[in-house]
Write a structure and sequence with these properties.
- Pfam families: DUF3784 (PF12650).
- Keywords: Membrane, Transmembrane, Transmembrane helix.
- It comes from Blautia hansenii.
- The structure is a single chain.
- The protein starts with a helix and ends in a 5-residue tail after the last helix.
- It folds into two domains: about 1-140, no CATH class; about 145-250, no CATH class.
- About 45% of the residues lie in helices and about 20% in strands.
- The strands form two sheets. A six-stranded mixed β-sheet has the order 4-8-9-7-6-5, with helices on one face.
- The longest helix has about 35 residues, at about 105-140.
- The chain has six helices and nine strands, in the order αααααβββββββββα.
- The protein is elongated.
Length: about 250
């Protein structure tokens, strides 16, 4: 459903950025013809289109992060929607308004206004491009590393908080080649990784740190949540499984 919304908002943004689709703008679409003449329609559409483009990217990021996104995503969404709304209102009532002949600016003032419009447009394009790049990079990069340090094992995951496990908390270590991740409740799903909190019929609420292309998994049953992880390849996973067993067995040595 989220990706459907992303598609719809993306199409609407594209239409508005072309300077069309003014009937989509609330308030303007119900205004009288006399009122509409007070606004530069194409510019109005493009301003709203830039804003909706940012909303589209936020929705796409939300679809990647899952149903319960991390706090930083909620802060990002709040900041963009609040500040963006204010900026859009200001632009719609300044650069998008047709000035009456008696209120036309001098040549110098008109030039300043044009430069301001260009700066705002460039900043909007740069912001959108940066957001696209950040989302794109997070979709295809990242890794999951497991480190052993004394009595603790640490799972270091890109784009997600690290997770630490004490040796005394591990009850069982097993290996499987089958996994149905189930429902992502508070995690990240990219083209390369699945990380965070998931829920399925076998493990219930559990932690997942895996490479999507590797179909070999290590299952850690602990006093807390069950944890499923792997290496980037089947061979990496097998080596990690052996290292993890040796590390766990040291706790039983007398």
């Amino acid at each position: 459903m989220m990706w459907i919304l992303v598609g719809i908002f993306g199409i609407l943004s594209a239409v508005l950025l072309l300077g069309k689709g003014s009937f989509l703008i609330a308030g303007y679409n119900t205004a009288s013809e006399e009122e509409k003449k007070k606004y530069k329609e194409k510019r109005l559409c493009r301003v709203i289109g830039l804003y909706m483009g940012g909303v589209t990217l936020l929705l796409a990021l939300g679809a990647v992060l899952g149903e319960q996104a991390p706090d930083w995503y909620l802060v990002l969404a709040f900041v963009y929607l609040s500040i963006g709304t204010i900026v859009v209102i200001l632009l719609c009532n300044t650069i998008c308004v047709v000035k009456p002949p008696e209120e036309e600016k001098t040549g110098m003032e008109s030039g300043k206004q044009q430069r301001m419009v260009k700066i705002i447009n460039r900043c909007s394009v740069i912001f959108t491009l940066l957001l696209v790049v950040v989302i794109g990079i997070s979709l295809v990069t990242g890794d999951v590393k497991t480190r052993f340090a004394g009595e603790k094992m640490k799972i270091v995951a890109s784009y997600w908080p690290d997770y630490e496990i004490k040796r005394e908390d591990i009850q069982k270590i097993s290996h499987t080649n089958k996994l149905q991740p189930g429902k992502r409740t508070n995690g990240l799903g990219s083209m390369k990784l699945l990380e965070g909190h998931f829920r399925n019929e076998i493990y219930g609420d559990y932690m997942l740190f895996v490479y999507k292309d590797c179909k070999s998994y290590i299952v850690l049953e602990t006093t807390g949540p069950t944890i499923v992880l792997n290496g980037e390849t089947k061979e990496d996973t097998e080596r990690l499984y052996e290292d993890m067993q040796k590390w766990a067995e040291r706790g039983t040595e007398t």
